[in-house]
Amino acid sequence: MMKKTVTIGILCLICLISVIQSAKALEPSENAAHVKVGVWLVNVEKVDLSSNSYRLDFYLWFKFDPNEISLNDVKSFEFINGAPTKYEVSADGDTGYLEYRVRGDFITAFDFSDYQFEKHSISVKIEHTKLDATKMIFETDSTSDIDPEATIAGWNLRGFKTEVSQHSYSNEAFSRFIFSVDLERPLLSSFIKSVLPIAVITTISLLAFFISPQNFAQRITLGVTTLMSATTFHLSLISGIPPTGYLTFADRMMISIYVIFLYNLGTSVYIMRLVDGKKIDKAISTNRTALRILPVLILILLVTQVIL
Description:
10 strands, 2 domains, six-stranded mixed β-sheet, Methane Monooxygenase Hydroxylase, Chain G, domain 1, rod-shaped, alpha+beta, four-stranded antiparallel β-sheet, 42% helix
């Protein structure tokens, strides 16, 4: 029993030593070379939501101490989330300066929960291919920025940020430079393109409540045709994004619209049965009651949208 306890203690001690050594291996060394990285974003050329990609055009430069790291070592970096083309603008190993013009596609996982009123952050991530954080550490250059003339159709450019973090691969950690740009859709444009059309279609369908119950054929025809238009609009609205495993704002909005259409058509069918049964007065009373309930139903759906 004593031997078993000692054996377990030794194994625990070995594991503890291994963990401590691994943690030390991930810590940046005081002797690591420091390389300052800067970026000047020329333009955001395209954002393709369907493929979770975007195309950027920017200048990228490195400032370093030639006594700490060589020019060739600085050149050995890679883009983690893309494979753009780059060409060398300036390189001077004596003064410690290297600059590239970079243009190409990058990828990320967009969040479409608020589509089409969403905000996205697009970024570029850079790491050295060989030197880990014990040998080289990136630093941000405060002169990094977006060109004042940079634009992208359909989006507003907002925040710009540069940062440095560490990314671990098993028992190795690499310094990672990241710059990101925040994009958001113009509110008025998004409303006109996504909410206004379906609001008009739904309003037209609800005009059925102002048609005489005796003209139930026209009521049902109006409801069905506008429902088909709403379905087509829904499919067109979500065609610009990839399939998602969650509901977007557009999906939640359209579910509420479908509930209103179901209420409208259900009421029309019930009124049709009353008219067929020669219960005209009850049909008129049912139509009035349904019309009074309609604002309450819309209010409940709006509250549900806010909660979700």
